Amino acid sequence: MSGIDLPQGTLDLLILKTLNLERQHGWGISERIRQVSREVLQVRQGSLYPALHRLERRGWIRATWGVSDNNRRAKYYELTPAGRRQLEDASASWRQLSAAVQIILDTA
Question: pTM for this one?
């Protein structure tokens, strides 16, 4: 990641959210996160691929081989039904946490 330390599990949530839109290869996932975050978050390969493997082991994503836009063989990741449920649960938890933190920041 860039100069921001993310709470544990946040990268997983960002990956799941990115894959909720469409299946992507690793570089596409990191680029989408970078673009949507207005270049604040830059996921390095050393963080991305261990996270992808962890999500795959948990059954939240699945990987299949395909051909990228530049005609190279690439591993594409997509959400599983369990991954969609995890995305919903994690999104709700994140919203609750961030709302509570915002209340404290606004009043303390």
Answer: 0.89
